[in-house]
Amino acid sequence: TDAEVSTRKKTFAEVQTERLDQAERTVLIKCPSKLNEKILLQYLASHGNVKSHFFFENRGISALIEFSEKSSIASLQDAVGIPSASEHHVVPFKSRLFTFTLKNPVSRHVEETPLHLSPQCPIPVKDLIEKLCLADSMSSQMYILLNEYQLTEENIKLRFLACSLVRDFTRAYFPDSTVKPFGSSVNTFGKLGSDVDMFLDFHDTGKHATKMKKGPFEMEYQMKRLPSERFATQRILSVVGDCLDNFGPGCANVQKILNARCPLVKFSHQPTGFQCDLSVSNSIAIRSSELLYIYGCLDSRVRALVFAVRCWARVHGLTNSAPGTWITNFSLTMMVMFFLQRRSPPIIPTLDQLKELAGEKDKHIIGGYDCSFVSDLRKIKPTKNTETLDVLLGEFFEYFGNFDFRKNSINLRKGKEVNKPESSPLYIWNPFEQDLNVSKNVNQPQLEKFIAMARESAWILQKEDKTQQMINKEPWGLAALLIPFGKNSSKMKSRMKGIGSETIRSLLDSLKLNNANTQQKAVGK
Question: What's the pLDDT at 433?
Fold first, then answer.
C-alpha cells in the first residue's frame, strides 16, 4: 500500500522519535465489562481530541487512547480519583493507567456495542497450517505467515507505551532520561507475543554540546563517582527495579539480574500484557536493531523469509525460548541475511557496502568499534535479483544443508564465507563487535540437528507434487515443513549420512523428545 511505502522510507531514528512522542500522548484504560464505545469516546473528547484508539483483551477489555495533545492527559488526570482504601492501602502514584467503571450500570436503552478487539498474540500453528493450505503458491504462504506473525500497528503502540510508562518512573530520579525499545520490537522482525527489550538512556547529548562552548568557564555537574560504568549501571537498575516493584502499578514478578554480562531487570507489565527486560543504554544493540531495520525495509522478501525460517525452526525444536545450546532467533536471522547477501545478484548489501555509503551523520564509533552505516534508505540501490520466495526458501535449506561449518564462518560485514577464527561448531561474526561470535552457545549436536532438518526440508520441497497434494488436501509447500518430521525417522537416517555418528544417537533421541513438546512450544510462544 502507499501508506506502507511512505512509512517504510523513514529512517530508523525518525520512526523511533515519532513513536516515542505518540506514546507520551497515550493513556491506557481498563474498561467496564458492558461498554458502549460511543459513550466512552464522547466522554474522552471532553478532555481533548482523541487521535486514535483501539481495544484489546487482557483480563477483561482495555483501551489504548492516543490524544492529539499531551495536555489532554493532564485534564483527564485532574478528573480521576484515587482508589478507596477500604481493605487495601495504595501507593499514591498517579500514572496514565486508569480503571473506568460505570456509575449507573447500563439501562436497557443503551446497548453495549460489539467491540473490535485487536489481537495481541499470533494464531496457533495448527490454525496457521490450515490457512497456508488455502494459498496458491509458496510465496503467498510465506506472506500469509508474515501477516499472521508480524507486529501490528496496535501492538507496536502498546510496546512504546510500556516504555513510556516505565520512563515516567525513571524521570523521578533522572529528569531527562528516556526509555526506548530495542531489538525485535523495533527491527521489523518482531513476532506478536514476544518480550519487550527496553533500555534506559541518559544522553540526549546533541542539543547540549553547542551551548557548552560559550563563556570563559569549563563547567560541569558535581556527580557521584563510582569505580566503573558497570557498577553505576547495577546501582541504577537496582534502584529502578525496587521502584517498579514497590510503586509501579501493574509491575509484577520483578527480578533483578545484575550480575549478567548485560545487567537487567525483568518484570511482567500486566496492563499491557508484556514481559519486559530493562537494561541501561547499549549503543551497539541499538545499531544492530537499526541494521536489521534497514535490511527489513529494503526488500519485502527479507522479512517473509526470516519469519518462515524462524517458524520452521521453532516447530522442529531447533530454537527455544529458554536459553541453552539452541540456535537463537538472532543467529537464525543473521544466517538468513548472509544467505541473501550470497545470492547472485545479492538481494541485500553487505555491512561494508552500507558503511561505504555512510555520510558524516552516520559515523558511529562505539567502544573502539566502527558501527557506521548509511541510515537513509534512499541511498541504497534496489536489488536486481528477481528470485521468488518459493526458490529462496528451498535454496536456503540447500545452502545451509551443505555449508562447510567445520571450516567456514558467517560474516555479514564481508558477505563471504571466512575461515573460522576459533573452533566453535557454529561461528557467526557479531556485525559490530568483531571479536565476538553471536552463536557461541550452539553445540555440535544442535548444529547437526539443524543441518539434518535443513536437508530433510530441501528434499521435501524438491520431491513435492504440489497439485496432487492440493487435490488430496494434504499440507504442501511451507505447510508441509511446519509439521514435525519424526514420523518417518528411516528417511531421516538416510539424510544423516556424513554426520558424525556419535551425535546421531543423541539427535534421534532429542527428535523423539521434541515431537511431543514441539507443537506445544510452537503454540505456546
Answer: 93
Whether the CB-CB separation of 255 and 242 falls below 8 Å is answered with no
- Tell me the C-alpha to C-alpha distance, in Å, between residue 482 and each of 130, 331, 402, 469: 11, 20, 21, 15
Class in CATH terms, 2-105+113-118+151-204+228-283: alpha beta
Peptide bond into 345 cis (omega under 30): yes
Q: How far apart are CA 269 and CA 465, in angstroms?
A: 48
Tell the residue number behind the cell numbers 573452533, with chain if given. Answer: 423
Residue 326 dihedral angles phi and psi, to the nearest 5°? -75, 160
Q: Which of 268, 292, 65 is nearest to 157 (CA)?
A: 65
Buried/exposed code over 490-499 (b: 16+ C-beta within 10 A; e: otherwise): eebeebbeeb
Phi, psi angles (nearest 5°) of residue 66: -105, 120
Which DSSP state fits 111?
P
Measured between alpha carbons, how far is 277 from 254 in angstroms, rounded to an integer?
Answer: 10
Per residue in 69-97, pLDDT tens?
999 999 999 999 888 766 678 888 899 99
Q: Which fold has domain 127-134+300-348+383-463?
A: Poly(a)-polymerase, middle domain (1.10.1410)
Domain ranges of the chain: 2-105+113-118+151-204+228-283, 127-134+300-348+383-463
pLDDT band at 282 (very low <50, low <70, confident <90, very high): confident
Interatomic CA distance for residues 116 and 158, integer angstroms: 16
Q: Is the peptide bond before 382 cis (omega within 30 degrees of 0)?
A: no
The predicted structure's pLDDT at residue 521:
41
pLDDT at 525: 36
Sign of CA dihedral 28, 29, 30, 34: negative
Average pLDDT over residues 162-179: 94
pLDDT digits (tens, 9 = 90+) for 394-431: 999 999 999 999 999 999 999 999 999 999 999 999 99
**Alpha-carbon torsion, ordered 302, 305, 306, 309, to 10 deg:** -170
